[in-house]
Amino acid sequence: MTATFSDESLTTSSGTVTAWLPIPTPWLSIAACSSEIYAQRAGLGGNLIAFDPLFGESIVPSAIPCLPTEVTSSWYQSNTDITTVLGPTFVCPGAYSAVQTILVNPSMEQVLCCPSQYSLNVPITGKGTFPSQCTSLLTSGQTLTYESTTPNGPWGIVTSTVPASTAASTGPTIVYGMHVNGFNVLAAATTMSSSSSTITSVTTPLPSNSSAPQTTSSVTSNGGSSSSALSKGAAAGIAVGVVLVVVLIAIVGWFLFSRSRKGRQEEKSPFAMTSQELPAEPRRLNELDGSGKTFELGT
Fold this sequence. Notes:
alpha+beta, 5-stranded mixed β-sheet, 3-stranded mixed β-sheet
């Protein structure tokens, strides 16, 4: 299906041309769209599909359109040389809800939308070959009417009831809703802040055929810059060094003072005698004459 859009814009990056189709307002929600369900042909798996943009063109010509033609162009890429995406302004259709928002880069986010009452199964950030992003589980006893191929080939209405035990079911028990994803250009980087850190999530690459985004996060502490923390540590180290030097000087001073005081006390002691005051050799005592003579003092 080929369509032209007056507000389409083209960008080229690394040789890849991207066509941007903006969706600035939500597409009108119509209650009948939720019942536009069909079962794939048996050769394709027989899965139940809802909200297919080509439901009216390929299955029931009288069906009302439930999604804008921009969605059809982005889903079914008719030009293999150009990648068509929704954006750079995008909102979910009226019958849809945003199930996840991914930060592609500091200036762009991708919004994943599923039909209301459908749950996110697996994010599809690029062009998907099967609408597995959004699912709705059928409950036991639920009756469902949908379009299916008849034995003769054409499409026809089929009504089935989910049995009490899904293990005994011979039909599908899950409905897959066609997802609608788009991009928004942001005025500033989107961050998630807390009292202790700031987290920036970055998902790469831009629209591709990958089924899941690759996300990295960087964390920056708000407690203070690294240079400030280094200055505090250096100041603490200097303070400890100064205290140790002062204590060492005090110990050395006390030791020198004690030696000086002890020396002065030894110089003043009356019992102190230097080597010069000692006699060179001891005096010999005169022995008395052993002859037994008696010496008398004269008168």
